[in-house]
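Input (structure):
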């Protein structure tokens, strides 16, 4: 309803109310020293920029638009190429509008972090709702340029996965799980026989089933990151409840992911996936499981990689 009113130019922004003699000022309630037009509300408000920065810090880049018409063109394009991004943007604007109304009426309003977390919780699950693709990998990287690794949203987990293949067709699978504080929960490696890179990368993501603990199901959601675009795209498609692979009796089983409240997949550049790459290379020599609470048993080289990423958070 909000976006229908926006398309009809019927959203009661302060400028809209001021022109009709229903408000004494047209200025933005967030103190931007600018008129609160529809463009300002949906594109250029300083408070909105802060919300976008929070999303970027959690690994979700949102495009910026300079005008209402440019925004409409962007949403029209995303409807074909990246629907999840468009949906994410629309959800943010609506939650921002709700916070703005609370601000105008002197009520307690949501902080930028709460707004982004609320939006992420609203993203539908493909198995329980009609066809819904996961976060698209069409973004250049999904990470701000000054970040090696982005923490997930509060009460979310992030699994970084990778695979390493030797000439002997022995492949190592690596998994690293961290929380929204960047704390290591576990790191694991498993070796298998495989010669195809994409298949090995998919197997690395599927190995989460073997290391995930019951308490991880209580988190609001998980993000699975990998540096193989083909593997991430395959996982996104396979997790779609209407994908043709669900009609096959045999094949990879992703149903274990339904135990989590939310699942998002994201492609990242190789330099943002180094701890998982380290685990994958180590796994070529044998299976292992490192508990984040037992730092003494973890190689210092791996801990240095984690510290390096923490310094960039």
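Output (sequence):
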């Amino acid at each position: 309803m909000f976006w229908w009113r926006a398309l009809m130019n019927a959203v009661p922004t302060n400028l809209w109310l001021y022109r009709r003699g229903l408000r004494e000022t047209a200025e933005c309630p967030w103190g931007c020293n600018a008129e609160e037009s529809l463009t300002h509300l949906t594109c250029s408000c300083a408070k909105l920029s802060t919300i976008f920065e929070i999303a970027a810090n959690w690994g979700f880049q949102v495009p910026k638009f300079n005008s209402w018409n440019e925004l409409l063109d962007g949403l029209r394009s995303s409807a074909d190429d990246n629907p999840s991004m468009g949906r994410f943007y629309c959800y943010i604007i609506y939650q921002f509008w709700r916070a703005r109304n609370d601000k105008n009426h002197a009520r307690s309003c949501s902080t930028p972090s709460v707004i982004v977390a609320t939006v992420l919780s609203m993203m539908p699950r493909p198995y329980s709702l009609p066809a819904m693709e996961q976060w698209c990998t069409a973004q250049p990287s999904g990470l701000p340029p000054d970040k090696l690794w982005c923490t997930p949203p509060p009460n979310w987990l992030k699994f970084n996965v990778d695979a390493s293949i030797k000439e002997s067709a022995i492949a190592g699978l690596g998994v690293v799980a961290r929380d929204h504080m960047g704390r290591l929960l576990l790191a694991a490696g498993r070796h298998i026989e495989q010669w195809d890179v994409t298949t090995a990368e998919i197997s690395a993501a599927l190995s989460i089933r073997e290391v995930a603990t019951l308490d991880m199901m209580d988190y609001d959601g998980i993000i699975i990151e990998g540096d193989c675009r083909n593997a991430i795209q395959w996982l996104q498609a396979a997790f779609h409840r209407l994908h043709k692979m669900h009609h096959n009796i045999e094949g990879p089983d992703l149903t274990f992911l339904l135990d989590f409240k939310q699942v998002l997949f994201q492609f990242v550049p190789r330099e943002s996936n180094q701890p998982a790459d380290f685990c994958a290379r180590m796994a070529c020599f044998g299976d292992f499981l490192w508990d984040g609470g037992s730092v003494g048993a973890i190689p210092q080289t791996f801990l240095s990689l984690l510290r390096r990423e923490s310094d960039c958070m």
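Notes: The longest strand covers residues 156-165. Residues 227 and 268 are 5 Å apart (CA to CA).
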